[in-house]
Design goal:
Layout lengths: L1 E4 L3 H13 L3 E4 L3 E5 L10 E6 L2 H8 L9 E3 L2 H9 L5 E3 L4 H11 L6 E7 L5 H8 L4 E11 L5 H8 L5 E4 L2 H13 L10 E4 L2 H5 L8 E4 L5 H13 L5
Parallel strand pairs: 1-2, 1-9, 4-5, 4-7, 5-6, 7-8, 9-10, 10-11
Antiparallel strand pairs: 3-8
Helix pairs in contact: 2-3, 4-5
């Protein structure tokens, strides 16, 4: 299958490599552009754990802190693997979404043991942090990067959609889904999506795409990278495109 990958460029490249190993061809169309924010060394005094809801949080933090001895609670396996590659010594993989991360933190840590530092982007959501605060935890949101929104799909992606050569696309966040829907509408590409299956990380991401007449919108069994990619095998088995 030929798959449109909508992740930020660095993450999309890794996903494209995985897709190639699975026998799929990837076309990268980043919907978010990551900019790491400069600043002084991040103080980790009194921090009992780092919360990472994306690989970009880890990438941003290592630019601002040399310490690797604070435990990292990662939202999913890719983020956990990146933290491991950056030298962090203790990593807990929540293997899910931000709600799963909050649940793991509540189950493993104590509110009186120290602050939780969230390595965040400018548009990070607050609901899951409030769940931790309601349980008595002090959560410090440290904004370390921003993710600028694409105003249009890359020309190659537009051409591929218009020509009907895209079989599926993968979306890893509700925000990316909303940006994708806006880009498709602005470029008058909605009708070109009728033969494309949208593979989404969550129901919320899928809901943001309902205005586009995709051939099908599928939601991963679990809110993680591998489960989204597994949807492609499901598409092939059901003969949606090949």
């Amino acid at each position: 299958m030929r798959v449109l990958v909508t992740r930020p460029a660095e993450d999309a490249s890794r996903t494209a490599e995985t897709l190639a190993k699975l026998g799929h061809a990837a076309l990268i169309a980043p919907l978010l552009e990551i900019h790491f924010l400069d600043g002084p060394e991040i103080s980790l005094a009194g921090v009992q754990a780092i919360l990472a809801t994306s690989g970009n949080g880890i990438r941003a933090l290592v630019r601002r802190s040399s310490r690797r001895d604070i435990p990292v609670f990662a939202v999913g396996t890719q983020t956990a693997n990146l933290a491991r590659a950056e030298g962090y010594l203790e990593i807990v993989d929540a293997a899910g979404d931000s709600r799963a991360l909050a649940d793991v933190v509540r189950g493993r840590l104590r509110p009186d043991a120290g602050v939780l530092l969230h390595a965040a982007g400018t548009h990070s959501r607050n609901e899951w942090r409030e769940r931790l605060r309601s349980a008595g935890f002090e959560v410090r949101r440290s904004v370390l990067y921003e993710a600028g929104e694409a105003q249009e799909l890359p020309p190659a992606a537009q051409i591929a959609l218009r020509s009907g050569s895209i079989d599926a696309l993968i979306v890893f966040s509700p925000r990316s889904a909303r940006i994708l829907a806006d880009c498709v509408e602005r470029a008058s590409l909605a009708s070109a999506c009728g033969c494309v299956t949208a593979c989404c990380i969550s129901d919320e991401a899928a809901e943001a795409l309902r205005s586009i007449p995709f051939a099908a919108i599928r939601v991963a069994a679990h809110p993680d990278h591998d489960a989204v990619l597994a949807l492609l095998d499901s598409c092939a088995k059901h003969g949606e495109r090949s």
